[in-house]
């Protein structure tokens, strides 16, 4: 598995991180990860898939994605010299932003619902207002270049307000209508199954039988739809839950390993250290 599952966010003295029209033409396979801040991803160019909350969305120009703090997600882009992946990414401290948003009740309500996971749709097709979204990204970038350090947080709040004003057109009222129009992918069925069984020893054959597919076809289809393999997703989900248990309980490492599906404590510790960069015990001590 590439990368570290948990990404530390260094805001450099501010309350946000901003990357404007970041461009990739090679080596963007993506990997499952989560981080402390809220993330808003605007796609300018590119094709691939985004996996979040047990759903798989198409990555394409005009899409806007958001990821809650500590939410497991994966962004996969099929890139080469003729098909670049271009995006603007906004990470921010969700608590700090509340102070700016409270004076805008309708937008603040949408923001709270997004933050609390009450809006199911996390990949929003903004193609019909893409010019406004691109203009908002450009205006934010220009304002940061012209602003003093003390006013940059205010500029970030203005950008978020504009993004929320665009989102509200798409998800209010009735986000479920759009969800029902979207066919359920097989990868989503796989992730739903894993959500119910990640605490058990994994057998691909049982999963394939339940979905009435061969193991090879199911594995190939999952990779086609998400850009990753089934065991990679399962491992990321198990590690995320293990981190949560280490953070919120006093359970032993042995018990936690068993609860997230590992029959061997030594293997759990070894895998955790390889993926997270520290042992489970060290991870708990850092909290």
UniProtKB/TrEMBL annotation:
Keywords: DNA-binding, Transcription, Transcription regulation. Pfam families: AraC_binding, HTH_18. Gene3D superfamilies: Homeodomain-like, Jelly Rolls. The keyword Zinc does not apply. GO terms for molecular function: DNA-binding transcription factor activity; sequence-specific DNA binding. Residues 188-286 form the HTH araC/xylS-type domain. This is HTH araC/xylS-type domain-containing protein. The lineage of its organism: Bacteria, Bacillati, Bacillota, Bacilli, Bacillales.
């Amino acid at each position: 598995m590439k990368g570290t599952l948990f990404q530390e966010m260094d805001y450099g003295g501010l309350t946000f991180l901003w990357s404007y029209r970041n461009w990739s033409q090679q080596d963007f396979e993506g990997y499952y990860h989560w981080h402390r801040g809220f993330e808003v991803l605007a796609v300018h160019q590119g094709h691939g898939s985004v996996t979040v909350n047990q759903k798989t969305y198409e990555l394409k120009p005009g899409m806007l994605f958001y990821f809650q703090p500590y939410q497991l997600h994966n962004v996969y882009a099929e890139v080469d010299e003729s098909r670049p992946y271009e995006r603007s990414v906004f990470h921010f401290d969700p608590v700090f932003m509340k102070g700016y948003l409270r004076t805008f009740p309708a937008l603040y309500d949408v923001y709270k619902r997004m933050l609390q996971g009450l809006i199911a749709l996390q990949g929003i097709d903004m193609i019909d207002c893409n010019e406004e979204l691109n203009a908002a990204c450009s205006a934010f970038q220009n304002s940061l270049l012209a602003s003093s350090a003390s006013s940059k947080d205010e500029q970030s709040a203005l950008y978020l307000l504009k993004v929320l004003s665009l989102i509200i057109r798409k998800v209010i009222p009735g986000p479920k209508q759009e969800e029902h129009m979207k066919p359920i992918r097989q990868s989503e069925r796989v992730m739903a199954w894993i959500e119910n069984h990640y605490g058990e020893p994994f057998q691909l054959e049982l999963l394939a039988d339940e979905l009435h597919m061969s193991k090879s076809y199911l594995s190939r289809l999952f990779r086609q739809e998400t850009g990753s393999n089934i065991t990679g997703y399962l491992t990321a989900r198990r590690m995320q839950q293990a981190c949560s248990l280490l953070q919120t309980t006093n359970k032993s490492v042995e018990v936690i390993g068993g609860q997230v599906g590992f029959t061997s404590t030594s293997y759990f510790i070894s895998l955790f250290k390889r993926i997270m960069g520290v042992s489970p015990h060290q991870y708990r001590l850092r909290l």
